[in-house]
Amino acid sequence: xxxYHSGSSKKKSLYRVKYILRLSCARxxxxxxxxxxxAFLKRFGSELLEEFFTxxxxxxxxxxx
Length: 65
What we know:
Structural class: mainly alpha
Helix content: 55-70%
Shape: elongated
Number of helices: 3
């Protein structure tokens, strides 16, 4: 998504969409693990979501203990 719109003049909107997607993913995973978003990100690190959203053509699953 970001590569497709990299030449766009509305990058602020694109960054907002990325933020909303990351926050939604974090909330979903935190609720799944009966935790808060802050505790979830502290435990697993925000790099987990960054890696998930920056991978282009690889599909992988996330497994939690």
